[in-house]
């Protein structure tokens, strides 16, 4: 039970840091069928490249 809570907390902290980071950040797939595709982008990255999240997801 405690391990699950710690994992959830860790995931939440990462998501908050990723979303609010002042620098552009991208998570890229490493799955063989979609390697190199953008899985998640933050707002700073969207501003940096002048594209919306919807436009960027799946690109890469």
Give the SSE map.
Elements: H1 2-20, E1 26-28, E2 38-41, H2 43-49, H3 53-56
Summed up, what is this model?
This protein is mainly alpha-helical and 60 residues long. It is built from 3 helices and 2 strands; from the N terminus they run H-E-E-H-H.
Architecture overview:
The chain is mostly helical and 60 residues long. It has one domain. Helix content is 50%, strand content 12%. Strands 1-2 form a two-stranded antiparallel sheet.
Structure keywords:
60 residues, two-stranded antiparallel sheet, single chain, mainly alpha
Calculate the mean pLDDT score and round it.
Answer: 92
Radius of gyration from CA coordinates: 14 Å
Annotation field: number of helices: 3
Overall number of structural domains = 1
Shape: flat
Looking across the biggest beta sheet, what order are the strands in? 1-2
